[in-house]
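Researcher: Hi, I'm a grad student and pretty new to this. My advisor asked me to get structures for two proteins we've been looking at. I'm not sure of the right format, so I'll just paste the first sequence and hope you can take it from there.
Model: That works fine. Here's the first sequence with its structure tokens right after it:
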Amino acid sequence: MTSKAEKKDGLLETVKTIVYALLIAGVFRTLFFQPFWIPSGSMKDTLLVGDFLFVNKMAYGYSQYSCPFGICPFSGRILGSEPERGDVVVFRHPVTGSDFIKRLIGLPGDEIQMRDGILYINGQEAPQVPAGTFVEEFEKQGPVGSLPQCENAGVGLGGDCEKSRFVETLPNGVSHHVLNIRPSRLDDTPVYTVPEGHYFFMGDNRDNSTDSRVSQNAMGVGFVPYENLIGRADRVMFSSAGRSMLYFWTWRPDRFFEEIE
């Protein structure tokens, strides 16, 4: 028969194991990789609603936002390295405190402008080449249950939601897909000059993205300080089109472990 002392020791060992596991998980999340679910369609078709990835925190070093809830007890950035144009980055919104994921377009000192839907960096066009049509089912997506926006407006539930797709090439040679839905006021913008110590981000789904083209005062992202960068998204680990990852029939195995470009 098990004595009360043995039961007490067993319970204590279980509690200690759980505490150690939580501490190890916390250290892993703080120093190395942070899990991130894609909640919206702003980065289609590079990232889809329901993609799950780990954010590489070692890519740019560490700031106060490297810790959960932004509680790291230091300011600035340590062991920092500069991000590269074209990186897909998770960062902390400078005002709302929410985590966003976008593509890095503008470096400190750059001049960024959109003209007729075409990106210009320091006066140089980032050319777009047609790359067919991105097609997805018009249905509720992810836990929020949002519906995709379609270039062929008026699609019924279950129909094909289409968007024109292009390959855009940045001045440093990085190429990636961008989508077009409709003419937008953000297709033509003033020139944005990126301040020192800040970065300019845009979504690949250009007409459905809250990003640096809109100032923070107007509920946009604006320029993002270096210390707000959390890490680089390198690879999709898992993907589910349904409202829950438990809905195995909505899994997208073709996206498992897919490299993010």
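Researcher: Oh nice, that was easy. Here's the second one.
Model: And its structure:
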Amino acid sequence: MTTDPLFDTAFLRQRIRTVADWPSPGIQFRDITPLLQDPRAFRLLVEAFVLRYMNAGIDLVAGIDARGFILGSVVAHQLNRGFIPVRKKGKLPFATVAEEYELEYGNATVEIHTDAVAAGQRVLLIDDLIATGGTMMAAARLLQRLEATVVEAAAIVDLPELGGSKLLKDAGLPVFTVCDFAGH
């Protein structure tokens, strides 16, 4: 979570809607669409990421399907860097490398093109939130298999009680989030 005293995380956090019991009973879904609809909030969000990474030596930004595409592509544009889509299995038209990971009820797979990144390139990995960390970890492994360096895993929201940010940190991956919803 950001600790910049000039950055008002409460303003952004207030624009994240909680939808109870979606997509299944007991889940508190954190919906970022109200934040994206508010021009001031969206601009502040993008600026938080751009200011953090503008001097970090990032070569590319990788965004995770699908909400990570929204933030990742805008941040890549603002940093004047290329964008890598990390897609769900079967969505990319060229040769891919895939990584399977576990979900609460089953498995899923993410893919990137085999030529998405060159060995040694420094990549910022972005998604909308970190829950269990499975998708973010799988995406990081994909990039690492292509010999890229994942500079940091970044997201708007951390759900620390689900253990994802700890999983990523324990794997040696630095993590940055704008706000968290601990205990909520």
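Researcher: Is there anything I should tell my advisor about the second?
Model: You could mention this: Residues 16 and 33 are 7 Å apart (CA to CA).
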